[in-house]
Design a protein that fits this description.
Layout lengths: L9 H22 L7 E4 L2 E4 L17 E6 L2 E5 L5 H14 L4 E5 L5 H4 L10 E3 L1 H22 L13 E2 L3 E5 L2 E8 L6 E6 L4 E9 L11 H12 L5 E6 L7 H22 L4 H5 L13 H22 L6
């Protein structure tokens, strides 16, 4: 064994292990860059458009549209994103635009991609409707655990933080911007829409999807349609949906409403005809909706979310199955 290489000392092996760990962490941090690029859509107003995809280990949950308004009295953030890392990167993206401090972080509703970035902001800035605050408090932990399963290391260090400031419908004046807070529901039990009357930008949250099939884990379709009807009566120049591209008009409202009407009719007829869930999942999609991003996946999820209630209603109404 005279010509065998000398064994490394314990200290040397430890140093190599530490260096390897350090490089792994650095490479992991570099990989977890959301690449946030604020897009100006009106005076003092920027949007960060998420991907029209499912949550994944590749996108880190970046499927949501976040936005911010720079006012004389500070920055208003609308939705904080899906993770602590997203929230931190959002703060840095804002800092590249303005040196104004963030004064408001408003969550439009309690789904995880819209509030799990709260942790990156001063707790005193966080605000939402009471129903959204309640939803984050009751379901935030489960949402966070599920996001870890869906997005992996992007979620490192993320913990759910509920806003402490409860909002109510009505006008909100901030630094020369005249915001109108509109309290609706249907996508969830509490859906906040924000109309900036100064710029004509309507931040619709997840009441409106654009070129992407809507999600329905907490949906009440009838109430959602009523909310969309109210949005259709508003005067605005630019619409920021919760998911999908920004629009210069109300077309996404009509598109979301049409999807919900088709979904409601499909599930109701299926229940009336006594179809089981497997048969409902196999039903063909209306041609006009095949172009929507992840439409098949969202249809399947909606069947799981909603179809049992349609079956129960058909049975309780005395209708006979096939």
């Amino acid at each position: 064994m005279k010509n065998a290489p000398a064994l490394l000392s314990h200290g040397t092996r430890s140093l190599i292990a530490l260096l390897a760990l350090g490089w792994t962490l650095l490479l992991g941090a570099a990989d977890q860059d959301y690449g946030l690029a604020p897009q100006p859509i009106a005076d003092n107003t920027w949007v960060l458009v998420g991907r029209s995809e499912d949550f994944s280990f590749t996108n880190g949950g970046n499927i949501v549209n976040a936005a911010f308004i720079v006012t004389r009295d500070g920055v208003v953030v609308i939705d904080s994103g899906p993770s602590l890392a997203y929230g931190q990167q959002l703060r840095r993206a804002i800092a590249r635009i303005t040196d104004q401090p963030v004064k408001w972080v408003i969550n439009t509703h309690h789904h995880p991609d819209h509030f799990l970035g709260n942790q990156a902001f001063d707790a005193a800035t966080l605000a939402a409707l009471p129903g959204t605050i309640k939803g984050i408090q009751s379901e935030g932990g489960a949402f966070n655990e599920n996001m870890f399963r869906l997005a992996g290391d992007w979620m490192a260090g993320t913990e759910p933080v509920a806003p402490g400031r409860a909002l109510a419908a009505g006008p909100l004046e901030i630094g020369g911007h005249h915001l109108e807070l509109i309290a609706l529901d249907g996508h969830t039990e509490a859906d906040l829409v924000i109309l900036d009357r100064t710029t004509g930008v309507l931040f619709a949250g997840d009441l409106v999807f654009h070129d992407r099939a809507p999600t329905t884990p907490h949906a009440d379709i009838a109430r959602w349609q009523a909310s969309l009807s109210q949005l259709g009566k508003l005067s605005f120049k630019t619409l920021v949906p919760g998911h999908g591209p920004v629009s210069a008009g109300p077309a996404p409202i009509r598109q979301t409403s049409a999807w919900l009407a088709w979904l409601d009719n499909t599930l109701r007829q299926a229940a009336d005809n006594g179809l089981d869930m497997t048969e409902v999942l196999a039903l063909p999609m209306a041609p006009e909706f095949r172009k929507l991003a992840i439409s098949q996946a969202e249809y399947h999820r909606s069947v799981g979310h909603l179809y049992p209630a349609y079956e129960l209603k058909a049975l309780s109404g005395g209708r006979r199955g096939k």
